[in-house]
## 1
Amino acid sequence: MLFAVRRNSRSYVLVVTGGGGGQGLSAHGLKGRRADGPFSCPARRRGTLQRHYWRFYWPLAVTSVGMLLGRQVQNGVLASFPDAARELATFAYASSVFLLVNSLLVFVPQMVNVLARSRQAHRVCLRATAGICLALCVPLAAVAFSPRGRSAVGAAFHIAGTDLDKVMLYLGLMAPLVLTTGLRQYYNGLLIQARMTGTVTLLHAAQFGVLAGVMVLGRGAGWGAVPAVAGAAIAADTLHLALLAGVYLRRYRFGEAAPGEGPLRLGEVWSYYWPTATTSLMFAVTRPVIFVYVSAMAGAVYTVAALRVAFDFAMLFHVPLNQIRHLFATFGGDDPRGVRRFLAVLTAAATAAMALVAATPVGSLVLGGVMGVSGPVLAMAGQALLVLCLVPGIIAVRNYFHGQMLTGRRTGGMAAGGILRVASLWAAAWALQSAGLLDHLWAAAVLVLGFAMEAATCLPFAARVAAARRPAGAAELLGD
């Protein structure tokens, strides 16, 4: 069933807007709107609301974990090649460059969820998304296919010869995926807005199945690392986009704009989009900045490979917390205290699970026994993972602040936080590399420092957004 939560001074009002199985969505969403009637529950029965939040959240969390499992399969397939460390490092370089462009589309689902609330707004957001994707393909293709782009990548990562050839081939094959990613993110946002989070998860499961299947079959058929990994990504993303578009055409229905709300304009979309794009770009810049300085140290191939494995594995625990932004966009305006309580429970569970894996033989079992990582790469990845156990708590605080700014349509603070994150980790990495101290442990600590600086920067911006939305005379903290 589908729920909308409203709060008055003494109780939470839960409005049931539809039945199970994806039927009867309210204002925007599926066919056959149906209202089964409102009922209220006392504030002391907060557990009921928490369960409703969980039903909305868990499919999104599973989706994000599934996407990250794709990275683990990539790492496992690459680790099965004879020169595993070199294959892992080569793909780490290529994916770092690709993510500089692809990351600019990370917040498209949140943008759609908040802005595309009518048919007219949908058309404007879709045109903006398509235009942004096409514009982003151009610089990536220029890097992949031009001599200057090749020279820049080689100089940045201190690589040449066969390694550089593979990096450029990866980039050339993955450049069209920018367009498919943008459209996939757009339709994902519409389905999440329509509370179809279960459907979103099923479609991502199909994408993961194709991604893993093509990589494993390609490796078994004797394909090289580049065609196996890049070919699997192309096949999986193309199928995912087709499935999303099919669900949208068959089941999605738009509502009307809210009373008193004028037509959406491209300028409004751009004002909302660019700070979020800057935020995600700063996240994508994070790894390349660290890799640039690590690459200048002795034994860089093994260190970069280990950091790639550790960073990707750590994301299994903290990336699901990013979905709190969608939860806040849906319920945070009516029940911010409940959303914050829900986030605290999730964060404690994620941190405990990550610490259990990192500090026990489970970590070595997964990284070594399941993924096939071995030797110095396995040892360094496990040590870096211990340091990264601090990340989920910091990420959770940052995401709560992001939720405030996204729903308040004042996203400038997100850009400021991302910029300061990169500036702080750049300064720390430079200082450590200059002192000859930068290794896998310090690189992980630099990443933690960057996220902490970002969260601290977002705090005053989120507080101002909450204060602007707070009723006069209310004494609430950050929208509580």
Note: The CA atoms of residues 187 and 245 lie 7 Å apart.
## 2
Amino acid sequence: MLPKDLATEKEVQTKSLEEAQEFLENVFAVSYRHTSLEQIAIDKDGVLTVGNERWPYTPHFMEALAHRIKMPLSYALNIDFDLFKENFDRRKQHVCAGVVVCIVRGTAVNLCRENYFPARTIDVIKELPKRIKQLELQELLLGDRGVEISWVDREIEIKVSPSDVIFGGFRISNSEIGIRGLKASAYTFRQVCSNGAVFADERGVIRWSHDRRVTYATNIERFCTALNILEIPKSELSKKYMDSLERPITDRGVINLWRRLRRAISAEQADSIVGISEKERKQLSAQLRQREDPVIARLTSLNTYQVHNNITATAKQYDLTTRRLLEEIGGNFLWRLPLN
């Protein structure tokens, strides 16, 4: 079991890029301590020690420790802390690679590989193309784990119905503690309920990679240049939204979606989002296993557009990392639908 007194993470929402820069410089600035697993010690009071330095640590940091020693989370998070520590102290002796402790607000929040080299969000903000800065800033979330900035382009409008309007836009997400790399995605915003969704990776996505053959500044410049020409396929996206209004989900589609959701949230929460009971889900799974032709799928009463909105609405209840995952699942679920 996790110790009771572990440090808590922090998230804030800001109203401008200028305010975000202040938070990034003064609140969520990340420092890095290079060390090895062998030099790390943890105690049940929630304190990490490396040499003569000490920091409180978060539950996520403890998960990162388990990952580094290849201890399954399902086991690591359900055993007594003393047993976890015993396992960690024994296994760390056999891991020779260096690691980096990521520290935010004086707290250890993650553990990365030795050569970890992230893009700094503040450098991206400073180099943002004028085209992006001129768009409407819809939401700006910052936290210990990362940043998410969303813009809406009011010229990209999809009218699902007279009272249900969706706008296209862009989202930049980044983590400087190794959760995820810098990424820019085409994004949609449903005005009636403020739900957001992110496009599938095969369309409307730019990723930053640190090419060590050129300078860091050049890599940032390349990312922002690609962002300046990133386009949203409005016509295709509009067709997918309109098509989803009357499209039922197949039984195979329901189970596949549930499995993707289950990677981010509990089984009960995934059932609730999809709109089925545990009993109904298990019956669907059994029917699929018994079907002679594994390709055949049958229609259910569940509606694609409604379930898509259930996913993106529920996403707002979670922390930044889980929310990002759910909004990507919701966007991919709709985007990857074949058009009728």
Note: The first helix runs from residue 17 to 26.
## 3
Amino acid sequence: MTTEVFPIGDQRVGIILDAAVLNGDDEPTFDELGAPVVTSSTVWVDRALFEEQTPTENTDMITTTGIKAFAILPVAADQTIPAIDDDDNPVSLPFITDGRVTVNANARLTHNGLSYQMRGDAVLEQDLRGRPNHVFCLCERTDH
């Protein structure tokens, strides 16, 4: 069964998610500095919209420029984000995993070879009838 998804745009956005590396007892592992050891995986969302903004904040003596961006991702009626992996295999990314938003503040987005850190959890937006319409992500560039 194919779920129809409304195309938001004509861009590809990568979602980079980290998963903890577990030991033989299914407990998270840590490096020598006590940081959790994670493995990253990327899924690609087509028919998305990605827009970079460059807001400037002026104070009396300092001008701060940050490169913020937002992504609007398509979502299916079952609240999954249709995506593909690096081998072009379909992946259905649930909006909620284990009671948490999957694309959360720990995730990163990638677009046109640039990396963006999520600023808060993604938001599932609904249409006037309460049906899932799109997923909104706010992020900030991390490699400038």
Note: The chain has a mean pLDDT of 87.
